[in-house]
Amino acid sequence: MTDLSRYADWTSWLTTQAEGDDDVHCVWVGGSAATGGYDEWSDLDLDVLCSPGTSTAVYTRWLEQAREDFDIRHFWAVPEHVWPDGRQCFLGLQDRPGLLLEPTRIIDLHVSDLSDKHSHLDVRRHGTPIVLYDPDGLILLEEEDVGASLEQAVDQARQRRSFDEWLVNRALARGHVAEAVDFYLRFALGSLVQLVRAQHCPWRHDFRLRYLREDLPAEVADRIEELVPGASTASLEELSLRCFAWLDELLAGEGQARTSLGLREPGSRLS
Fold it and tell me: CA-to-CA distance for 100 and 256, rounded, in angstroms?
């Protein structure tokens, strides 16, 4: 079991709030506490599901109550358009959490309207939730079919291959170092990591550089991290060559690529 003792005041508070709020149906802890990798620097990822149409009202009153019950030092509200059916914010309970002078105390609170999209969880992708409140058993653990999304990601990487390399090398040739690094991380290493993930953990193919150590074999994660600028003495030009060479290995031939990436023929179901 994940040790959430340093957030015990919050998990207790959340349960009390949920029990006293008729609009709230489910509360659980997700993030690294559910997927793995949780440590002393982890925040507390919280999901709250409410009766359709009430999530904003619940978010507002819970936030007001939290400000009364806790010493909140920092507050970040995610823009409303990010979650059309809910709200999300981060609450900092320390002055300078980024200094890592003490175990982290940060709350990631996500309040949403109840729907299958939010209550049906793929444990391969999201881990096993630590349920704090779910009296009606609305949280369902089931495997999501990622076939369509995975197919699109691989197809996009294939289509963009020559354009991605052009963007990176054009910036390098012009001496635009900052732009070259940005393009390299997004369009070279980003595409590569997505294809590697498609091979080893297709259900989290879009997680980019997060959870590399949890999702990939150690030697594969090592190889990817060697391609991160600054991880070695290699120049960005050399890193780009190595990155695109590996990407080409994965995209070498349509049939071979589909097999190596664990994909079926178009129209068939992903295993």
Answer: 46
Sequence letter at residue 110: H
The SS3 of residue 106 is strand
Fold of 5-141: Beta Polymerase; domain 2 (3.30.460)
| pLDDT tens digits along 90-147 | 999 999 999 999 999 999 999 999 999 899 998 998 899 999 999 999 999 988 888 8
C-alpha 167/C-alpha 183 separation (Å) is 7
C-alpha distances in angstroms, 236 versus 107, 172, 183?
Answer: 37, 8, 11
Question: For residue 202, which of 268, 160, 147, 156 has the smallest C-alpha distance?
Answer: 147
Decide if 17 contacts 80 (C-beta within 8 A).
no
Rounded Cα–Cα distance for residues 157 and 162 (Å): 10
- 144 class by beta-carbon count within 10 Å (0-12 exposed, 13-18 middle, 19+ buried): middle
What distance in Å separates the CA atoms of residue 62 and residue 138, rounded to the nearest whole number? 21
DSSP H/E element including 69: helix 55-69
pTM of the complete model: 0.82
The one-letter code for the residue type at 96 is R
Burial zone of 59 (CB within 10 Å; 0-12 exposed, 13-18 middle, 19+ buried)? buried
The whole-angstrom separation of Cα 124 and Cα 70 is 34
Give the CA dihedral 112, 116, 122, 127, nearest 10 degrees: 30
Spatial contact of 195 and 160, defined as CB atoms under 8 Å apart: no
Of 163, 207, 222, 154, residue with least CA distance to 187: 163
> What is the token pair recorded at 95?
């002055």
Longest dimension (CA), the chain: 62
